[in-house]
Design brief:
This protein has 298 residues and is mainly α. The chain has two domains: 31 residues; 230 residues, MetI-like fold, CATH 1.10.3720.10. The chain has 14 helices and two strands; from the N terminus they run αααββααααααααααα. Strand 1 and strand 2 form a beta hairpin. The longest helix is centred in the last third of the chain and has 33 residues. The protein is globular and about 75 Å long.
Amino acid sequence: MAFSPVKTIKKNPRVFVLKTVVFIIFFVYAVTLVYPFVWMAVNSLKTKFEFYNDVFSFPEVPQWQNWYDALIGFKVIGEAGETTREVNMLGMFVTSVLLVTGLTFFEVMVSALTAYTVCFYKFPLRKIVYSVIIFALVVPIVGTLPAMYRFMKDTKLLNTIPGIMFMCVNGLGFSFLLLYGSFKSLSWSYAEAAAIDGAGHFRTFFQVMLPLAMPFITATAIITAIGFWNDYTTPQIFLRKYPTIAVGVNTLAVQMERKTEYPMMFACMLLAVIPMVILFACFQKTIMKNMVAGGIKG
């Protein structure tokens, strides 16, 4: 039995050069993203003298005390009317984890219910509701702050966890847009089959459509969690009694510029960033895959 010789594939030198140039560009871009974190990590382990002597050198003896001082020693004053209390970085970290977990869960669930309803159910003013949601995302939030603050204060929701939940969870934000496009990519035949089997609207949503959209919901939840974690404006204004880690880092940046405690400031910044970096690194494929697959469809 005769075998035909294997055909050799000629490499196009132009394609090779193009790939090499693209690789170099993206490699340099990746270095510019990673370098600041490495630089902060190195300088967070220095003494003040070593930092001011040479910001690009390595510490002679790693000063892990800076990280301990950042986690336990640095404190922010939480205000609630006439009463105040000091909260260290560890306490702010716990507050942020609990707050972000609750906000993300309720925001994603409410957004999923809203997107599912607007996507699949026909009711009067359906298109107007969608347009109003898009318009609300365009309006700058700064213009609504005075009215919102007055409302929260008059209803006794200021500086309370239920109040911040009520204000942030609405189901009409960016999560709605992502999940609306995700549900648009699903076939309604699954819901019809469930209805034939006797499933009601809620059972169809929670047992059929929600599991099908779970990859999209997971990606949306991660993006939402990162947004809540990095938000310091809302807790700074409406939740001064319970400082979050974003509020702490913002306060620290102002204080340390006066005290010139830059090594400890870098340690605090890394403590605030590391959880979200780990979360994104673990789910980056899920986020990229489902953001591209979902899209935004009108």
